[in-house]
Amino acid sequence: MNCPSVDPEIVARRKAALARLDFPRRLWVGGQWLEVSGGEVWAVRDPATGERVGEVPWGGRLEAGRAIAAAAASLPHWRATSLRRRSEILARIQELLRELREPLAFLRTAEQGGPHVQSLAEVDFAADYFDWYSRQVRRLRRRRVVKEPDRSLRVELQPVGVVAAITPWNAPFSAPARKMSAALAAGCTLVLKPSELTPICALALAWICHRAGLPPGVLNVVFGDAEAIGETFLEEEAVRLITFTGSTRVGKWLMAGAARGVKRVFLELGGNAPFVVFADADLDAAARDATRLRCANSGQVCIAANRLLVERPVHAALVQKLAARFSRLRLGHGDSPDTDLGPLIRPEAAHNAERLARDAVRRGAKVVCGGRAACADLPERFYPATLVDGVRPEMEIARTELFAPLLPVIEFSGEEEALRLVNGTEYGLAAYLYTRDLGRARRLAGRIEAGVVGINHPRPLAAHAPFGGVKQSGFGREGGAEGVLEFLEPRLIGIREG
Ligand code: ADP
């Protein structure tokens, strides 16, 4: 079975756009495009069609070691580079991202499948981070002096050193951009290890940074054997901080490994965001925003609405509105303007969504719309927007991060039960509250265990605001004034006076 075809005119536009991304598909180390020693390559494939997007080298320990050495060698120069120059380079990266947004969006859709408009939005979001830190870096007060009668205490903010950044495929531009922009602003040098599913997006970022004037070695990109590269990050003394966005499983492994070398880690891990709708909410807005939050990027977003909690009196009305919206969403190739839902990244992700929906049904829940049968004519990587009603909190579908356009609906009565359900998870990344009673919303927001809370608002994110989780969703903040502090450490220098 084939993916629904894309209009030939769009195919031609994509081809022309991608031709503008004129860089070698290799690793980027020390300002050079690097082949790997054994010559091993890896074919990157379009998840919608299985077609080959490109071929890249498959790196490992050796390449990771070289990248770390390059980052360490360029550190003295970069940390001494003036804040003004750093700011200029970050601003230029931002400009180039915006100039190239269309080719970059086609590349993102080719590698990870998301609809074109969502790919454009992600490129813009990545640019926002470079924009924000290009301004923020000028405000970094590097020095503070406390004068006492017999001494002065000088506090200097120093970059932590070489940073290893590991990023996932679902946000192939914005996840690296958040880490890179803040780390570069702070004066750190980096080795970026993007997901092997979206390596060319990361190479595009490296190419843009190079064109913007970032000196060789300040940013390096390696990928391939993730575990061997991860091990190298943990082993090499020069790496002082590991910043990771991805699964809780890998995050825990990195955190445990970082203890060996007492390296800093900061982690943005999985989520299980509740979307809570009280009886007094604007149900149309709630249905619209829950649909968007569950189905953008085919549900493969860490802050996606993962569980819908609805107050009993409006349960039937809300489910009906949601079902109407879910049923209208069209599956297809992300390059088609008609597509709302692209493919999932792997067929196993669709199998898992179907398994969870069936498990819930076996335990008494009901599929209101969707399910694999609703798109049986499409390749198995596709999964339609699926609403499962009558879910109980102990079911697996309500407890795990779904990463698919699959939404379980759970009923509740009153604020206290809502709060118990909201916090009844080991995760704590995002939560959404829909109610017209803003006093209640604010009161509850303060008791919610999550790094981000949206009140009648589906996307409370911005480059100038700190983002991150609590509990097993991780720690550390990206974006905002806080984000750059993760990459800095205060050093105290005391001088005897007189
Ligand atoms: P997902 O299942 O969504 O791909 P992962 O946590 O497996 O989430 O992947 C996130 C990132 O972590 C990717 O870049 C991946 O290659 C990387 N990764 C996976 N396993 C390891 C590991 N053992 N060490 C370092 N990085 C890893």
What small molecules does this complex bind? adenosine-5'-diphosphate
- Compute the gyration radius: what is it? 23 Å
Q: Count of helical segments?
A: 16
Largest β sheet strand count, sense and barrel closure: 7 strands, mixed
Percentage of residues in DSSP E strands: 15-25%
Account of the 3D structure:
There is one protein chain. The chain is globular. A hairpin with a 2-residue loop joins strand 1 (about 25-30) and strand 2. Helices cover about 40% and strands about 20% of the residues. The chain has helices at about 10-20, 60-80, 85-100, 100-110, 115-140, 175-185, 200-210, 225-235, 250-260, 285-295, 315-330, 345-360, 395-400, 415-425, 440-445, 480-485, and strands spanning about 25-30, 30-35, 40-45, 50-55, 145, 150-160, 160-165, 190-195, 220, 240-245, 265-270, 275, 305-310, 365-370, 385-390, 405-410, 430-435, 450-455, 475, 490-495. It has a seven-stranded mixed sheet with strand order 14-15-16-13-12-17-18, sandwiched between helices. A six-stranded mixed sheet has the order 9-8-7-10-11-19, sandwiched between helices. Helix 2 crosses helix 8 (about 225-235) and helix 4 (about 100-110) runs antiparallel to helix 7. The N and C termini lie far apart (about 85 Å). It is built from 16 helices and 20 strands. The chain binds adenosine-5'-diphosphate (ADP). Adenosine-5'-diphosphate binds next to helix 8 and helix 9.
List keywords for this structure.
16 helices; 20 strands; six-stranded mixed sheet; alpha/beta; about 500 residues; binds adenosine-5'-diphosphate
In short:
This protein is α/β, with parallel strands linked by helices and 498 residues long. The protein contains 16 helices and 20 strands. The strands form 5 sheets. The protein has a 7-stranded mixed β-sheet, with helices on both faces. Strands 9-8-7-10-11-19 form a 6-stranded mixed β-sheet, sandwiched between helices. A 3-stranded antiparallel β-sheet has the order 5-6-20, with no helix packed on it.
